[in-house]
Design brief:
By secondary structure, the chain is α/β, with parallel strands linked by helices. The chain has helices at residues 32-43, 50-54, 67-78, 96-99, 110-125, 137-161, 174-183, and strands at 21-26, 47-49, 55-58, 61-64, 83-87, 102-106, 168-171.
Length: 186
């Protein structure tokens, strides 16, 4: 499906080509995956979750990929003409930063992220939302911990990514990102 209707986003890239490469980062429950899916559907650009590059999802549970396998998969993705990758900041899988058109930092407030963590966990426990990792009480606690760890790492993340200048964008809400991308069409 990606590629059909390329004229819809022909001027999205700052280079003026028929492509768009985005890296969406943020805390757990900031809305990264939902935003990536929305952009993917609107503009027919494939999206990839960095968690699914790091972890092989199996019926027996998650298995961490080797650095070589992870690198091979990620290099194949970022070699494509258009892509969206999304995930929490990590020390690996940063090769996309210099290659992408925009690094989108989705910076939702702590209260919103905590609410989403609890809502997601409840919905997953009730079978109303799909999950990669089983919604155990331990996993809920880990998600809460990751929300607060992100708060402590936030300043360093902003400092590190600021070297990318105008292609590094910080947004509080997904709607603001969608409006920004839509305006790129003109």
């Amino acid at each position: 499906m990606a590629g059909q209707g390329c004229w819809l986003f022909g001027s999205l890239s700052p280079q003026g080509s028929d492509r768009l490469k985005l890296d969406i980062i943020g805390s757990v429950a900031s809305g990264k995956t939902t935003l990536a899916k929305e952009i993917s559907e609107r503009y027919e650009i494939p999206y990839y979750e960095k968690d699914n590059i790091v972890w092989e999802r199996t019926a027996c549970g998650d298995k961490k990929r080797s650095p070589q396998e992870r690198e091979r998969i990620f290099q194949a993705i970022i070699a494509e003409d258009s892509w969206i990758v999304e995930g929490s900041p990590r020390n690996c899988l940063q090769e996309s930063f210099p290659l992408c058109d925009y690094i989108i930092f989705l910076d939702a407030d702590t209260g919103t992220r905590l609410f989403r963590v609890f809502r997601r966990w409840i919905r997953q426990k009730l079978g109303k939302e799909k999950f990669n990792s089983r919604p155990t009480l331990n996993f809920l606690c880990l998600n809460i911990k990751w929300v607060f760890e992100f708060n402590h790492q936030r300043r360093e993340i902003l400092r590190t990514l600021s070297v990318y200048g105008n292609k590094f964008k910080v947004f509080r809400h997904s709607e603001d990102v969608l409006n920004f991308i839509e305006k790129l069409q003109f």
